[in-house]
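Q: Given only this backbone (292 positions), what sequence would you predict?
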C-alpha cells in the first residue's frame, strides 16, 4: 500500500488501455507472388516495354498503312532478317567503333580542360569562356566545317562527336569539383598534393557523382550526333554506319527496316544505360553511399 501511495497519479488523457494481441492484426505479413514480382525493377521495365509494343502493334493495325507505319511484328521481322544477313551487325560495329574513338578523345580533352580549370585561374576562365561559347552550339551544325576540313570519312564523324562530348563532360566535372567540401580540400593540401595528384586523389573521388552524370550526358549526346551525322554522310571506306543503314532503307521505301534500325539505336542506348553505366554506378557511388 505504501508503494502504491508513492506512485504518481495516472492522468486520464495519457491513460491507454492494453489491447489483446488478437485485435492488432498481423504485424508481419508475407508478400504475395504479385508483390514480390512487382518489386523487381527489371520486371517493371519489361512490362512497360511490352505495353509500348502492344500499343505500337494495335495502332499500326488500326492505321493499316505499312508504308507509313509498319506493325511491331513486321519491324521485328525486318530486324531479324537484317541481323541474319549480317548487314545490320556490320553497320552497328562501324558506328560503335567510331563512337568509342570520338567519345574517348572527348573525355581526354575534357580531363585536360578541367585539370587546368581547378589548378589555375586562367584555366578556370578558359573553360568558362569556351563552355559558354561552344556548349550551346549543336554538334551537327559543325558538319559542313568537318566536311571541309577533314573530308568525307571517319575523321569528320570523330570531330563532331568530340564536340558533343567535350563540353557536357567538362562542365559537369568542373561543377562537381567546385562542390567538393573545403574539409577534403584542406586534407589534400595538408598532405602536399598538388596538380594532377590533387585532382586524382581528392577531387575525382569526391566529385564522381557529377562526373558520372556528365559521362552519361556525353554518351547520349555523342550517340545522337553520330546517328544524325551518318544520316547525312555516313559512308566511309565503302561501308556506312547504323545511321546510313536507316538512310538507305528510307530511300528504298523499306519502312519496316527503317523502324528496325531505329529500334537498334534504342536497344543500344538501353544496354549502355542499364548495363554499363548502372554497373559503374553500383560499384562506385552507390557502394560508397554517395547516392541512394
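A: Predicted residues:
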Amino acid at each position: 500500500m505504501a508503494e502504491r501511495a508513492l506512485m504518481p497519479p495516472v492522468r486520464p488523457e495519457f491513460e491507454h488501455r492494453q489491447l489483446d494481441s488478437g485485435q492488432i492484426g498481423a504485424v508481419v505479413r508475407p508478400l504475395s507472388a504479385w508483390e514480390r514480382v512487382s518489386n523487381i525493377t527489371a520486371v517493371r521495365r519489361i512490362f512497360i516495354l511490352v505495353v509500348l509494343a502492344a500499343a505500337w502493334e494495335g495502332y499500326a493495325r488500326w492505321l493499316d498503312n505499312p508504308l507509313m507505319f509498319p506493325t511491331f511484328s513486321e519491324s521485328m521481322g525486318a530486324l531479324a532478317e537484317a541481323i541474319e544477313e549480317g548487314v545490320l551487325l556490320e553497320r552497328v560495329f562501324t558506328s560503335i567503333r567510331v563512337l568509342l574513338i570520338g567519345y574517348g578523345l572527348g573525355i581526354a580533352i575534357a580531363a585536360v580542360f578541367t585539370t587546368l580549370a581547378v589548378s589555375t585561374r586562367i584555366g578556370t576562365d578558359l573553360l568558362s569562356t569556351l563552355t559558354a561559347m561552344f556548349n550551346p552550339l549543336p554538334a551537327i551544325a559543325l558538319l559542313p566545317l568537318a566536311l571541309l576540313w577533314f573530308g568525307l570519312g571517319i575523321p569528320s564523324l570523330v570531330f563532331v562527336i568530340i564536340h558533343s562530348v567535350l563540353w557536357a563532360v567538362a562542365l559537369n566535372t568542373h561543377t562537381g569539383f567546385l562542390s567538393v567540401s573545403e574539409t577534403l580540400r584542406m586534407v589534400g593540401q595538408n598532405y602536399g598534393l598538388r596538380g594532377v595528384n590533387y585532382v586524382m586523389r581528392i577531387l575525382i573521388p569526391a566529385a564522381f557523382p557529377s562526373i558520372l552524370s556528365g559521362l552519361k550526358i556525353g554518351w547520349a549526346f555523342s550517340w545522337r550526333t553520330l546517328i544524325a551525322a551518318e544520316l547525312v554522310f555516313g559512308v566511309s571506306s565503302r561501308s556506312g554506319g547504323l545511321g546510313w543503314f536507316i538512310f538507305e532503307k528510307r530511300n528504298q521505301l523499306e519502312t519496316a527496316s527503317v523502324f528496325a534500325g531505329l529500334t537498334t539505336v534504342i536497344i543500344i542506348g538501353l544496354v549502355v544505360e542499364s548495363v554499363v553505366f548502372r554497373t559503374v554506378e553500383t560499384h562506385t557511388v552507390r557502394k560508397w553511399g554517395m547516392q541512394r
